[in-house]
Design the sequence.
């Protein structure tokens, strides 16, 4: 796979568990101090132990000044896309352009339906996500009013606004063939997770995105590649994303240059704030340097 040449960025993926709020906010503060670029918050409204993702994201934005925030990824079946578009744009305005929108088709359908949401088949979930991207972008447009007539969502002359204050992206956390093609046609970013899609699976998935982008007349390099990476820096576990900092630097640099991923959002398996600090100090800057070196050599 190509290296698209995009800037290399880093983030952190703290838990939204209510019982761990102090540590979650401390991890966000560590990301801000450490020069990381993003904080991703998972969105599972049916999870009784979790805080509401959008309330937590607003809180994180309010206590930081530089770092960006995004839902990693928003639960579409329980969040109406036109209203979510307005909330996302509002957070972008309030934060001075520090919000991005990650969307997911949904999972855990029994829990979603128990909370009053739909129970969708895989084709229905894919179709709803494709429609949602279109609805969100209409709601961010500068048109006086917008209409949309889909199988899952409709707009009937609604007046969009406010608009985001920066060129906010819509990133999709997907893995199936149909939805990877939808990333290429419609979206601004792709958000896979190493727990579900290890590095060796990325090239074939990315190629499907690129092919769809080219067929749609889009430049594949304009699609950001955000990789959620789970592990422990200096851990004793087995696997590609374990071990001391130099092992992380080697692996993430290889994934960036060989697989085209440009953003790494770190979810520490243990250690919380200490792990975030170590990732920010010993991994992120070294990966940037190594990728620059390999790009120069290449």
Sequence:
């Amino acid at each position: 796979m190509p290296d698209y040449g995009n800037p290399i960025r880093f983030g952190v993926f703290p838990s939204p568990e209510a019982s761990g709020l102090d540590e979650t906010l401390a991890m966000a503060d560590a990301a801000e101090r450490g020069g990381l670029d993003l904080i991703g918050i998972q969105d599972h409204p049916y999870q009784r132990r979790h805080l509401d993702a959008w309330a937590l994201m607003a809180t994180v934005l309010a206590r930081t000044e530089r770092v960006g925030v995004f839902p990693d990824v928003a639960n579409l079946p329980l969040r109406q896309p036109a209203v979510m578009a307005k909330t996302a744009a509002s957070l972008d305005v309030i934060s001075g352009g520090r919000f991005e929108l990650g969307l997911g088709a949904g999972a855990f359908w029994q829990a979603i339906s128990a909370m009053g949401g739909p129970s969708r088949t895989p084709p229905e979930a894919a179709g709803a996500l494709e429609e949602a991207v279109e609805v969100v972008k209409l709601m961010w447009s500068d048109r006086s009013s917008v209409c949309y007539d889909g199988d899952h969502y409709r707009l009937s002359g609604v007046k969009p606004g406010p608009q985001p204050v920066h060129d906010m992206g819509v990133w999709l956390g997907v893995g199936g063939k149909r939805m990877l093609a939808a990333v290429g046609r419609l979206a601004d970013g792709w958000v896979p997770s190493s727990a579900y899609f290890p590095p060796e699976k990325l090239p074939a998935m990315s190629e499907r995105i690129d092919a769809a982008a080219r067929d749609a007349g889009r430049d594949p390099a304009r699609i950001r590649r955000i990789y959620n990476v789970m592990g422990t820096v200096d851990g004793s576990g087995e696997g590609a994303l374990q071990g001391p900092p130099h092992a992380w630097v080697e692996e993430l640099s290889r994934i960036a240059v060989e697989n085209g991923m440009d953003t790494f959002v770190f979810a520490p398996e243990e250690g919380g704030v200490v792990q975030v600090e170590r990732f920010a100090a010993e991994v992120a800057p070294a990966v940037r340097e190594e990728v620059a070196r390999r790009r120069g050599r290449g």
The first strand starts at residue 9 and ends at 12. Residues 9-297 form a domain with the TIM Barrel fold (CATH 3.20.20.30). The chain has nine helices and twelve strands. The chain has a mean pLDDT of 96.
